[in-house]
Amino acid sequence: MRWNYWVIIGLAVWLLISPWVLGFSAYNLALWNNMLIGGFIIIIALWDFVPPEE
Questions:
Q1: Which residues, 6+ apart, have CB-to-CB distance to 9 below 8 Å?
Q2: Alpha carbon distance 12, 53 (integer Å)
């Protein structure tokens, strides 16, 4: 069931680009919040996506 990782990554990418798409990139706190949380979610989803070594 790997499709849910791609959904999570897609939503995280939306977090990364939404300040410019929705026009609130001038608000630094909201911009950095979206960038940090989106990046963190992508890192965690990709980390969980990779199978463990045996």
A1: 41, 42, 45, 46
A2: 26
This prediction has a pTM of: 0.81
Do the beta carbons of residue 48 and residue 8 sit within 8 Å?
no
Return the CA Rg of the chain.
13
HEC readout, 8-43 = HHHHHHHHHHHHHHHCCCCCHHHHHHHHHHHHHHHH
pLDDT average per 10 residues of sequence, the chain (54 residues): 85 95 94 95 88 77
What Cα–Cα distance (Å) separates residue 12 from each residue in 1, 4, 46, 53, 54? 19, 12, 11, 26, 29
